[in-house]
Amino acid sequence: MKFFNHFGRYLLLIKGMFSKPENAKVYWKEFMHQCNDIGVGSLGIVSIISVFMGAVSAVQTAYQLTSPLIAPSTIAQIVRDTVILEFAPTLVSIVLAGVVGSKIASELGNMRVSEQIDALEIMGINTKSYLVMPKVVAALVTIPMLVIIAMVLGIWGGRLAGDASGILSTYTYDRGLNENFMPYNVTFALIKSYTFAFIISTIPAYYGYYVKGGALEIGRSSTTAVVVSCVLILLADYALAALLL
Amino acid sequence: MIEFNDIKKGFGEKIVLDGVSHVMETGKTNLIIGTSGSGKTVLQKCLVGLFEPDDGEIKYDGLSFTDMTEEERKQLRQQIGMLFQGSALFDSLTVEENVKFPLNMFTKDSHSKKIQRVNEVLERVNLVGVNKKFPSEISGGMKKRVGIARAIVLNPKYLFCDEPNSGLDPQTSMVIDKLIRELTLEYNITTVINTHDMNSVMEIGDNILYMVEGKKEWTGNSEDIIFSKNKKLNEFIFASQFLQDAKDMRMMQASGDIGVTDAEKIK
What we know:
The complex is a heterodimer.
Chain A: H1 2-17, H2 24-64, H3 73-113, H4 116-122, H5 127-164, H6 170-178, H7 183-209, H8 215-244
Chain B: E1 2-11, E2 14-24, E3 29-34, H1 40-48, E4 55-60, E5 63-64, H2 70-77, E6 80-83, H3 95-106, H4 111-124, H5 140-152, E7 158-162, H6 170-187, E8 190-195, H7 198-204, E9 207-212, E10 215-220, H8 222-227, H9 231-237, H10 241-255, H11 260-266
């Protein structure tokens, strides 16, 4: 019963986002501000994670492929495909659910508790549209970009680690990257990143927007938002893999 | 003028407003008073549409707010200003940006014209030189004044204030009360104030609605309060011995048992 209550209110929040902006210029400014917060603000952590995830997967794949019958360039193929298919979209999205999700939930929660949302409502502003929509659109624009950056950096990290540890030369790695490449994998990863971006932005927005109470409840809703987002990302990850691969 | 009839509101089993009716007059400071939990905040939130009443009708200058579509309400809300208990300033924006926000949202004025209007209202609430400060860098009284400036920047017809004096010292409270009173008269606004503050009741109470357990208990003005025989009202307003003495003195003064100069001496 509680689930349906949450789900119904979540759908109403999504529906409420779609209304004519009171002033498109102000909305555009807010959208750009959110792009900066979500996209540029997360670039550092995404870059670090991506390079190391590629490097670690190169080293660990080499550790497991001990057979002399398997060409070393296969390591590059495995790194490429795991980074594109899983690590870049899913792992990065889970990290972003923590970084971006908690920020969205606590920002909206604080605005709710300190009556800033009520103040906007009184002014005649559609708060769902003004506060939530720019965040969702910014996430849909910037998160797939971050995922693409993560793909490139992850593959580059694998190349770097392979060369530095003497597992395979950069020439072999580059050759491996060009073997059996399926462009559909990138499309699939982008479909995943759009789905996850929607989850990462709307779920925390829901928990933040409807928070009741004080500082303790803001913290609680923030944590719940991150946990629920992560679980939904994993569920969506499986569902998309089962449907599209 | 805001008129409301038979407003009812409950949350689950609990009835918070039980058929409240009253008229808030234009150009006057209309006060809603009552103990904590008497329903005054819920009533004010129903009046501005933050809560939907279960029953009853609210009219703004004859127009039924209850029957309005969401779009019509949005239009009306542009004529409403509200000062919140905690000021509700946007903490990521400076004082100037806070006051300018409604102008950005609802007008197409040039930047310089907006800044001119912002400076005008900030000056009107006696705040000069704080334009670039953030809400966290100014005092509670200043925040209230910024809140008032933001509420009046679009020249509203209706001004709502929720506990405007909470958390302020008596002197600053008086300044805020005086400011609200002046603005009400200057712009001929229908002002509705939700308060606990007895000073406000006595100083600016043109039209007072006293509520007990979600019902209208008494109405009148600050003069009427002194002579009211309503037991609940007397217990609420003159709760302390000091206030009781002040009331007795005012009554004696009015009946001629004590002269004005004697009263001054006692003061």
